[in-house]
Amino acid sequence: MKLLVKKHSVGGTVLLAICDPDVLGRTLVGPRNARITVKRPFYGDTEMEAEDLQKELPNAVSINAIGRKSVNFLLSCGYGNSRSVIEFEGVPHMIFMRV
């Protein structure tokens, strides 16, 4: 399974942005009319196999994921739980923060 990934680094802090290819470029409406636009500058356009991406997860302080495949992948790797997921027009979104 390939997902779109972008690694953002500021100092020693790493944020991973992960999305399903089919949601890139979409603007979605969620709870209380919150909107999210899945933009290339944030989510990137680098395709990565899930097995390779799994190796990057432990280095991230924050992981932002949108799309059914991306969110299910994070959950299956032990990041977050189903209560951490918010749906935007039926598309799951999750932000994981390591504390």
Write out the strand line-up for the largest beta sheet, numbering strands in chain order. 5-1-2-6-8-7
- The CATH homology group name: uncharacterized conserved protein from methanopyrus kandleri domain like
Tell me which CATH architecture applies here. Answer: 2-Layer Sandwich
Structural class: alpha+beta
Number of domains: 1
Query: Helix and strand succession?
Result: EEEEHEHEHEE
Strand runs, count = 8
- The shape, in one word, is globular
Report the mean per-residue pLDDT as an integer.
96
Strand content: 35-45%
- How would you sum up the major sheet? 6 strands, mixed
Distance between the termini: 29 Å
Give the fraction of residues assigned to helices: 10-25%
Total helical segments? 3
Query: Which stretches of 5+ consecutive residues score pLDDT under 50?
Result: none
Supply the CATH class: Alpha Beta
CATH fold topology: uncharacterized conserved protein from methanopyrus kandleri fold like
Task: Give me the Rg, rounded.
Answer: 13 Å
